[in-house]
Design goal:
24 strands; single chain; alpha+beta; 648 residues; 8-stranded antiparallel β-sheet
Length: 648
């Protein structure tokens, strides 16, 4: 049974030589390691991030004094059972040598602190309650909690209750009695967006605790406008000092930019950990500290990934954990993982689905930490420019005995992929080619039938949607995959210009800012509304597909060449609608532009023949291509090969 102590009141004197009137001894020197600080929003953070830090009722609005200090008002209850302040105990139990944590708080005021845990199913269990009676002086509260019951899931957190007085909390942390070895971090940022990169650099430099573990910051500057010439860079660089190394190079894509950071970290530094980080993010600095601590405590080297929060809706968790389905060779949410969860409307304590521990096979490189040993044993990324490089790397590391953990409470805000056109724009080439490479290298199954069936179905959908540029790029990707891996390094410089040049010939790839740039549509709104209703019955879908196929073999209405028949929002740009039209304006997923698509029967037939021929080749040559790519893997991922790329 736990003995209850009132925080702020003097403990009874010891029986031998003790006296209740004797001044209290000085607190013992704290030992052990901070695993996760209790943190509050930064001054520049918008209000909608607050639920990620504090769970407050409408009448319990706390006063945040800084990153680590908050005042809970009178007659209130405030919970720290939130995404950033609850402790993801099950992940520490499963992957690290930490078997006990200590919640340590510095408090002042009168009230109560209650500590809770959750089960994998989300049920809540009360652990311990501590009355606070220290209205004037700061005092320390500590609760020791074993991690024994957390194998399959569960979090730890604490709540603060007040009556007729406030309670101030500062410098809170989840700690361990273990002395973990110090390990330094190199951050590798690849950038085409210098303004975003400068914001990330400034955020890294604003916290002394982050600077204490930060040994290097490598920025692979691949943009036309250089980071050095961007407003605010001088101030950010001054704080980081000689830690910062800006490397200006050709645009080699994400794999080339991150690869440069990994190369510099391994060849030109002795750092223990390498943190890969996108530029177009907003960073929670403590994410770096938490990933660093987790890797230091791990029982074996693991890749420590961070979650993705939605940059447009800050309280929403967009990605909790990802896996690659090696049967279909597509990425997807991990089994049991939530997607697009809004902590603003349903806090962690009330969200049953976020308490089970989730296992992943990879983590996106929006923010991901690689221990040095993992890179030395696994090698460099594949030279893929963009797309699938992060997933392939984790699969390769897993084959070498290094798993990936997506760590709750470590996250960045990033633009969600649901607001991108990257499956149909110029990136369609890299999606297709690199997915085939990953499948050839890592799938244990004979996926030829799956690849062919999926590819034919997808190509037909794009053709019916008048997305001819997308189909063309996908076919070029298959042809380049079948040509083998010999040109992969060269393609890091040549593939993007080639793709962009090819797309210029297609109307679906040409955009203007708004539909107002085009003539008004010819169809009336009622007819358009009727056409926007999707078919749901399988028999109706088959009929619609056949009708659309026949329609696309006919000559289009000449009047549709100059005037669209309908304006189509991005969410309605589906084959069953576009496949029965001769022209349409279609908006981008992010609302930034509109294309005027025209149906072209000749292009439809020629691309259709190319699709059939390429998938026939892919099925026939798949066993040979698997051997070719697997034989080439050591050279493609060696430090020496990448060094030659960077010295060109």
């Amino acid at each position: 049974m736990t003995e209850q102590t009132t925080i702020g009141q003097q403990a009874p004197a010891a029986k031998r030589g003790g006296s209740a009137d004797k001044p209290a001894d000085k607190p013992a020197v704290r030992t052990g390691t901070v695993l996760q600080r209790v943190i509050l929003p930064r001054d520049e953070d918008p209000l909608d991030v607050r639920p990620l830090y504090l769970d407050e009722s409408k009448n319990s609005h706390s006063h945040v004094s800084g990153r680590t200090e908050v005042t809970v008002p009178r007659s209130a209850k405030v919970s720290f059972g939130t995404y950033f302040n609850a402790f993801p105990a099950s992940y520490w139990k499963r992957w690290t040598r930490v078997d006990q944590v200590v919640l340590r708080l510095t408090v002042r005021g009168s009230g109560r602190i209650d500590v809770y845990r959750s089960k994998p199913n989300g049920d809540t269990v009360h652990i311990e309650g501590l009355p606070v009676r220290s209205p004037k002086a700061w005092t320390t509260a500590e609760v020791k909690i074993p991690l024994t019951p957390f194998e399959d899931g569960g979090w730890l957190w604490f709540d603060v209750f007040t009556d007729d007085s406030t309670v101030e909390v500062k410098d809170g942390a989840w700690t361990t009695p273990l002395e973990l070895p110090r390990q330094t971090v190199a951050v590798a940022i690849t950038t085409m967006r210098p303004v975003d990169a400068v914001i990330a650099l400034r955020t890294l430099g604003e916290d002394p605790a982050v600077l204490a573990v930060l040994d290097r910051v490598f920025v692979a500057d691949q943009g036309k406008v250089r980071v050095r010439d961007t407003e605010g860079f001088t101030e950010a660089a001054a704080v980081l000092g000689d830690r910062l190394h800006v490397i200006e190079q050709d645009n080699l894509g994400g794999s080339g930019g991150f690869g440069r950071g990994m190369y510099e970290s391994i060849v030109n530094s002795d750092v223990d950990q390498i943190m890969l980080m996108d530029d177009d993010i907003r960073l929670e600095p403590d994410a770096l500290l938490r990933s660093n601590a987790f890797a230091r405590a791990a029982t074996q080297p693991v890749i420590v990934g961070s979650h993705m929060l939605n940059l447009q809706a800050r309280s929403r968790l967009h990605s909790f954990g990802e896996v690659v389905d090696l049967g279909s060779c597509y990425w997807r949410p991990a089994p049991g993982a939530v997607t697009d969860h809004d902590f603003g409307s349903k806090q962690l304590r009330k969200s049953k689905k976020v308490h089970r521990r989730i296992d992943v096979t990879y983590n996106g490189w929006w923010m991901c930490l690689l221990p040095r040993e993992v890179v030395e044993r696994t090698g460099m990324p594949l030279p893929l420019f963009i797309k699938w490089d992060d997933a392939e790397y984790s699969l390769r590391a897993q084959e070498n005995g290094y798993p990936t953990v997506s760590l709750p409470g470590s996250a960045v805000w990033h633009m969600p992929w649901t607001d991108k056109n990257d499956a149909t724009d110029w990136q369609a080439y890299f999606h297709t080619r690199n997915r085939l490479i990953l499948a050839a290298l890592h799938s244990p199954y004979d996926v030829r039938k799956t690849l062919v069936q999926q590819g034919l179905k997808l190509s037909l959908r794009h053709l019916l949607s008048m997305e001819y540029s997308t189909v063309m790029l996908q076919q070029k990707a298959i042809e380049d995959f079948l040509a083998g891996p010999d040109r992969l390094f060269d393609s890091m410089r040549t593939a993007l210009p080639e793709v962009q040049a090819l797309r210029k010939n297609y109307t679906d790839a040409q955009t203007l800012p708004s539909a107002r740039e085009f003539p008004p549509p010819t169809f009336d709104m009622v007819r358009a509304e009727h056409m926007l209703r999707p078919p749901v019955n399988p028999a109706v879908i088959m009929v619609k597909a056949f009708e659309a196929l026949l329609h696309n073999l006919k000559d289009p209405d000449p009047n549709a060449a100059d005037r669209p028949q309908i304006n189509v929002p991005a969410t309605n740009a589906r084959w069953f609608l576009l496949g029965n039209l001769d022209s349409a304006t279609v908006s981008n997923a992010d609302g930034s532009g509109v294309s005027f698509r025209h149906r072209d029967p000749k292009e439809f037939r020629e691309l259709g023949k190319r699709v059939l021929m390429n998938y026939r080749r892919l099925a026939a040559e798949w066993p040979r291509m698997k051997r070719v790519y697997r034989d080439a893997l050591p050279e493609l991922t060696s430090v020496e090969s990448w060094g030659k790329v960077f010295t060109k």
